[in-house]
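Colleagues,

For the teaching module next term, I've prepared a clean inverse folding example: a structure given as tokens, and then the sequence designed for it. I'd like students to try predicting residues themselves before seeing the answer, so please don't circulate the second half yet.
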């Protein structure tokens, strides 16, 4: 228990990084895609992919480890409803995020080629962008509910 406050602080910090980076990069990629500027899209997709690997991925890994460790230290059973719902919603967010990462990498590659060749983005890019956008909604909604459950522990 002597390390509880450190783990709690790191858990909150990593949750903030995960959600903030995810929301911020999604926003910039979404609005840049709407601009249609291939050069800008090439830059943003490259940085979005990097931000996901540098910030989001470590946080995604750390969150369940630190959360389950703290629940154990505090004596919460894994069958506590708020904890079960948190894990289910986190899994839903992860199930959306994994294909989003793959899509982002493919979109980044297509944008790089189009920018280098001074060509428009291929139709495949825009199909991937639609899927990427749709997957973002359940992921973000799930994480907002997880935040609420972690703070309130309602049941």
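(Answer key — instructors only)
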């Amino acid at each position: 228990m002597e390390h509880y406050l450190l783990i709690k602080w790191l858990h909150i910090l990593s949750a903030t990084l995960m959600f903030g980076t995810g929301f911020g990069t999604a926003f910039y990629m979404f609005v840049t895609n709407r601009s249609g500027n291939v050069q800008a899209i090439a830059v943003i997709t490259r940085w979005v992919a990097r931000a996901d690997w540098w910030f989001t991925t470590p946080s995604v890994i750390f969150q369940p480890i630190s959360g389950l460790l703290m629940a154990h230290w505090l004596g919460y059973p894994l069958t506590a409803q708020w904890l079960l719902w948190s894990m289910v919603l986190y899994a839903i967010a992860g199930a959306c995020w994994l294909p989003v990462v793959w899509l982002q990498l493919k979109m980044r590659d297509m944008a790089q080629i189009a920018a280098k060749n001074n060509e428009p983005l291929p139709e495949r890019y825009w199909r991937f962008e639609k899927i990427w956008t749709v997957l973002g909604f359940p992921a973000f909604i799930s994480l907002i509910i997880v935040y609420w459950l972690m703070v309130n522990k309602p049941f």
